[in-house]
Amino acid sequence: MKADLLKLRHYCAYQERCHSEVREKCYELGLRGEEMEEAIAHLVEENFLNEERFARAYAGGKFRMQQWGRKKISMVLKQKQVSPYCIKKGLEEIDETDYRNTLLALAEKKYQQLRGEQYLKRQYKTMQFLLQRGYEQELAREAIEQIAKKEE
User: Fold this and answer.
1) Which of 76, 54, 57, 56 is nearest to 133 (CA)?
2) Percent with pLDDT over 70 in the chain
């Protein structure tokens, strides 16, 4: 147990982790049931494992580095079994102005790449791209309309 706890501490210290990732690691190390719960409790007590901190780091990182939208970030956090409260806190890391500017920049770049396409097909493909990235449909539509007006 002692050696496993050290491995788990190192695993959590290397980068922020959520509970489900740590549970998976416990299974890899052969920890089950009571042993696993004790190990996770130790990590939480020692602040190696903090789901809110994980959600904040994850959301901020995915937005800044991969330019993901809020919907995609929250969907992945749900898949990782992060609590709705922590997801909400994580999404607060994303500045609204930066979010809208990033959305607009992505939309403009995609729209320009589709220069040869017909007007409606160009808008449709840009919209699909933004939705895949996890941006809200309403915000994506506004951004595309803004770009289309500039082009007229």
Assistant:
1) 76
2) 99
